[in-house]
Structures are given as C-alpha cells and as structure tokens.
C-alpha cells in the first residue's frame, strides 16, 4: 500500500487567468495532481502559450509539489468525424494542444476518441488513428508527454465505449507514439461495465487486460454516475451520490494495481466539494 499522502489524486481545476492558477487551486483543495485545460475548450482557435506563462506554470509546480499534470483537449475536437472541414479543424486543434502540452512539460494529454456520426464505426476508428499519427513529427522520443485516450460512455455515435474499440486505437499507435488509456468511472459504467463492487472492478480490469492490456492503463477520472449501468449517458455525479455508489471508489483506491495511477475528479460542485471528496477518497487508502 502507498502512503495516502503520496497518492496522485486531484480534480479538473480552473486555469482562468493562466494555467498556473490551476496548479494553485489544486494545492488549495488538497490535491497532489490536477487536470486542466491549456486553452478555451469551446473555441477552435486558441492563443499560443507565452514564455512567461511557461515560467509561471513551472514555478507553481515547484512551489506546490504537484506532478503528473493532465491536460484535457477541447470538447469541439472530433478526430474521427467524416466532415472534412470539421476533421481538418480538429486535427489542427489537436496539434496545437500537443504543442502547448510540450511547452508546459505536461505529463498527459487526455483526448476523447471521436464520433462516427452517420459514417461506419470502422471508418471513424481509422480516421482517429490517422489524426493522432498526424502529430508524430512533434515527438523526438525525449518528451515525457503521453497521449491518453479516454473510454467513453457511448452517447450518441461516440466511439470508444467498448474495450475493443479502445484496443484498435491503442494497438495501431503503440509503436508510433506514447499512448495510454484513461478510464472514466462514470463512462465505463454507463457503457455497461459493472464496477460497483471489488469483484466487478476485478472482472472489468481482467477484461481490459485481455483486450487492451493493463500496461496501457494510465489514469482514472473519478466520477459517480447519475444514470444506471449501460445507460450510455455521460452525466457525472458526486462521489457516493450516484448509481455507482461508494464501494466502487473504495475498491479503486485500495486496488494494488491502481494505487500508483493518477486519479482526477470531474464531479459537479467545484472546489468546496472536491476538498471533501479528496479527503474521503484518501481515507480509503
């Protein structure tokens, strides 16, 4: 068991006023890591990171001791979409996000795989791989950045709700780029994987290992779910207040194979609730 004070646990904090502010907000809620947006997640064109922002960001990391910082890419991006104009914008935005992460020395870039819309799922998956390969030239092998594809709830035409689709993406990229997987507890539950108990979590992890490989599991988003198992609805709830229940999160925090993985809250309510949730989750260790 790891010491509970060294567990990598945090939330998606606000970068309003500068990315360094997300680090300080993390410190204020008792986090040891955070997830953030490096730019406005609802705009296609984002300004580049200035050198003084890089300095402030690294200074904040040094002052707080936070590490394993994760960026979440824009909600607008669809790396597998069939529309040429949107796909081009998505690829450009993804590339700019990678550049910002490399500038800041961020550890992980979390991205949603994409949505097929009216196109076949197989074509969508191929376009996602092609899109991600488009940033290969930015990696020399010396970077610490890992691209982390997120398991989705499967809402609408979104791909990545089953481990087989995640495996297709990961295995197509693993020899070309540093690639990993983030399991969102709300998403995976909504997608039909029952992780409400320690036994259910073990079964799901074993299935993930067979299909994808546990070596690729990199991080967790910790969110309870407003809707039931297999609902395919992405609606987050506070820890222990939704359909997943508290035993799920006890099992995750106590699982020996998961203890070293960074875990990020995306629950509603913001900092006042995250302080309590972080303390609660840490108490399970």
What oligomeric assembly is this protein in? single chain
Instruction: Give the strand tally.
Output: 10
Number of helices: 9
Low-confidence stretches: none
| CA-based gyration radius | 18 Å
| CATH fold label | TIM Barrel
Identify the CATH class. Alpha Beta
**In which order are the strands of the major sheet placed?**
1-2-3-4-5-6-7-10
Q: β content, as a range? A: 5-15%
CATH architect. name: Alpha-Beta Barrel
Question: Could you please describe the fold and organization of this structure?
Answer:
With 285 residues, this protein is of the alpha/beta class. The protein has a single domain (6-34, 49-283), classed as Alpha-Beta Barrel (TIM Barrel). It is built from nine helices and ten strands. The strands form two sheets. Strands 1-2-3-4-5-6-7-10 form an eight-stranded parallel barrel, surrounded by four helices. It has a two-stranded antiparallel sheet with strand order 8-9. Helix 4 (121-133) runs parallel beside helix 5. The chain starts with 8 loop residues before the first strand and ends with a helix. The mean pLDDT is 96.
């Amino acid at each position: 068991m790891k010491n509970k004070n060294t567990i990598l646990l945090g939330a998606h904090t606000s970068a309003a006023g500068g990315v360094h502010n997300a680090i300080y907000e993390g410190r204020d809620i008792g986090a040891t890591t955070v997830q953030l947006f490096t730019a406005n997640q609802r705009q296609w064109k984002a300004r580049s990171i200035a050198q003084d922002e890089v300095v402030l960001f690294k200074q904040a990391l040094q002052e707080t001791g936070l590490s394993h910082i994760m960026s979440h890419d824009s909600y607008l991006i669809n790396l597998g979409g069939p529309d040429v104009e949107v796909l081009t914008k998505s690829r450009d935005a993804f590339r700019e996000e990678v550049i910002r992460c490399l500038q800041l020395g961020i550890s992980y870039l979390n991205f949603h795989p994409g949505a097929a819309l009216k196109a076949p799922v197989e074509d969508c998956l191929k376009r996602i791989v092609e899109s991600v390969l488009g940033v290969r030239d930015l990696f020399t092998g010396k970077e610490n950045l890992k691209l982390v594809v997120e398991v989705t709830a499967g809402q609408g035409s979104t791909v990545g709700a089953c481990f087989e689709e995640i495996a297709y993406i990961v295995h197509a990229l693993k020899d070309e780029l540093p690639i990993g997987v983030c399991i969102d507890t709300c998403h995976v539950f909504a997608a039909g994987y029952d992780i409400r108990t320690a036994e259910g979590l073990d079964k799901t992890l074993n299935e993930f290992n067979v299909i994808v490989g546990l070596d690729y599991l990199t991080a967790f988003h910790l969110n309870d779910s407003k809707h039931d198992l297999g609902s395919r609805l992405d609606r987050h709830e506070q820890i222990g207040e939704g359909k997943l229940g508290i035993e799920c999160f006890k099992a995750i925090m106590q699982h020996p194979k998961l203890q070293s993985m960074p875990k990020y809250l995306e629950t509603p309510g913001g900092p006042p609730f995250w302080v309590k949730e972080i303390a609660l989750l840490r108490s399970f260790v």
